[in-house]
Amino acid sequence: MGTPARVVHDAVSSGAYRTVGLGFRAVGVGGDAMLARRRFEEGRPVSSDPRGAKALAALAGLRGDVLAEQGSAVVEPMAIREDGEAVDLPVDPGPRLVVFVHGLMGSEHWWCLGGRQCYGDKLREDLGVTPAHLRYNTGRHISENGLELADLLEDLVDRWPVELEEIALVGHSMGGLVSRSACCQAAERGDRWVGLVRQTVTLGTPHMGAPLEQLVHRGSAYLDKLPETRPVANFLRRRSSGIRDLRRGSLVDEDWRDQDRDVLRARAVKEVPLLPDVTHCFVSATVTHSPSHPLGRLVGDWLVLQPSATGVGRTRRIPFEEEYGFHLGGAGHIALLNHPRVYERLREWLAAEAA
Description:
Blueprint: H1 2-37, E1 40-41, E2 44-45, H2 50-69, E3 79-82, E4 85-87, E5 96-101, H3 119-127, E6 130-135, H4 142-159, E7 166-172, H5 174-189, E8 197-203, H6 211-223, H7 230-236, H8 241-245, E9 279-286, H9 294-299, H10 306-309, E10 325-329, H11 340-354
């Protein structure tokens, strides 16, 4: 009597797990197809509309590496954007350029959080700088986006209509890692633009890695060990290369090339030096007013812990100078994109460099 019941139970269970697995795969594939079909709305590219750009940015963050390999028109090359459109040069190019690099699943619209005036426009009014807001495929490896940023800036210097005196890079979250990767790769090959960099600013950047991606990486490895939870593991492993790079703050190809991306213990990341003779500024945040509060130490700004944003890890340390750091208490990760206190400090740093 027991044996037939066991056979029926195993058959039902096996079918259920296969159904769950197919369901997870369908969510990913269906999401890709749905947004691909929405390439145009009323004759205007989806990417030019803020709502469409938001949807495409989310898709790029999740599956942008695969879509790029497939040559999908849903993801577009890195570009400077004005009013949603890709442009060759920002408006009114002057001698001081400030490049804004958004984070994971973001776009240039993110800097206008809550419909407020973005940092770049304020800096144009207060300091006379030329802001350039990038949009890029955040699902690709950080090192790949870093190389593309280096190429874009080298080309930009060639076409700049006036004498370009200095460049500042401002990156939020992943954008700070992309900026550092670009500086590293440009310095190695001797790009002209890197010699014009006077400042870098990272806002809530996971220099030492992001805890959520670390948790997902470990969790998917353990879930893969059991057939009952393997469909969940397979779904989690569909996350993009860009998301995976956030686990340890990887900046160069050597960190991921010729490696099993799902292995629990990977070789150490390559230490990338900061550019010499450049002021490197950083901003961290915690949801509590004090970074030493137990909750603040546990969750940071909800996505990045304060030590990671300041370049301090258990076994690694980025040689940032404390005087060029700023902590924003009582704020979350997204608030760093447009916050009056962050802008005040950003303006002070850039004004001091100009002086």
